[in-house]
Amino acid sequence: MPDDPIGSVLAAFREEAGRGVGSRAEFERLKGKYLGREKGLVPGLFAGIRDVPAGERGAFGSRANAAKQEVEGAIARLAEELQRREVESRRAAQAVDVTLPGRFARRGSLHPVTIVRRRVEQIFLRMGYSIADGPELDNDRHNFELLNFPPEHPARDSQDTFFVDRKAKSPLLLRTHTSPVQIRELTRRGAPLRIIAPGRVYRNESVDATHAAVFHQVEALVVERGISMADLKGTFEEFFAAFFGRPTKVRFIPTFFPFVEPGADVAAQCPFCSGAGCPKCKHSGWLELAGSGTVHPNVLKACGVDPEEYTGFAFGMGLDRVALLLYEFPDLRLLLDGDERFLSQFAREA
Ligand code: FA5
């Protein structure tokens, strides 16, 4: 044992502690070296008291206690200092550097058909319509039979219809138009009724610039007392004026749909050439957008509505063609290709 063990332990400690600790590991090492219960130098001083001559033990004991207090006090201060530095460096690591360039979150854009659908919905909601929905996987009964299609009607042919299960009691199919929603809603809610039903439809068609096999329609159905073709025409005029932002002339060309009588294809005066003729309207001055008519009494009856009391009009408009007109792109197939260069050109909100 050195002559003055307390003095040399204290001197060594003061020197080491005076250099400070750079890390928690260094701190733990220092603390263990001097205060460790088993091998710590300070507890060692107390163990060595038995080697001190009996007369000096009292003085040795109180010096050892004073040394212990000094070491414990210095270790506590080092611990505080270390903790303060650790908190500071954590804060610095989390700090926001406001001079760094920002990271921009890339936002997707809405599909043009979605934009058109929402605009159509807004216009009809303002006119007092509500929005209805129906299944895309439907059956022959709703897609054809209750819509007054005779059993041998060519539209039921597999040329036009994707059948999913021909053996079902009423064959299952992908709906070929949104008109089956008319049947479901009128049966469920009865008259009077004023709805639109936007949705996806499927046809086994050969695809070209204006025909897709998967496309979108919006169905409209109004059943009230005293509804006539005049209401249908007025509704179209108002809709097109709101949609294209100016009064738009509408033309009705008589045609046959089994579920309306009379039936008409609806064409809007071409908004690009105001009827003068241009490539978009194939130089006719008119663009065919929808099928329409006054609801056939057989359809009203099939849905439990008295055709003597109520009459109605309905139409089904092609949303993809409306999108094509609005945005002036050349080919419907662009809507389905998922090419980001095309799709990212459209508005983020509508
Ligand atoms: C029908 O689908 C009838 N259900 C519409 C109807 C409803 C008539 C209510 C009477 C009363 P049509 O097959 O003509 O009709 O289609 C309606 C519209 O869908 C067309 O005017 C056109 O804009 C669009 N359309 C039809 N076939 C395609 C296709 N292959 N690709 C893109 N759009 C199409």
Structure report:
This protein is α+β, with helices and mostly antiparallel strands and 350 residues long. It has 2 domains: 5-94, no CATH class; 112-346, Bira Bifunctional Protein, Domain 2 (BirA Bifunctional Protein, domain 2). The protein is 40% helix and 19% strand. The strands form 2 sheets. It has a 7-stranded mixed β-sheet with strand order 1-5-6-10-9-8-7. Strands 2-4-3 form a 3-stranded antiparallel β-sheet. The termini are far apart. The model has no long low-confidence stretch (mean pLDDT 91). It binds adenosine-5'-[phenylalaninyl-phosphate]. Adenosine-5'-[phenylalaninyl-phosphate] binds at residues 177, 179, 203, 205, 211-212, 215, 217, 219, 257, 260, 263, 288-293, 314-316, 318, 320-321, 332. The site of adenosine-5'-[phenylalaninyl-phosphate] has 25 residues, from strand 6, strand 8, strand 9, strand 10 and helix 10.
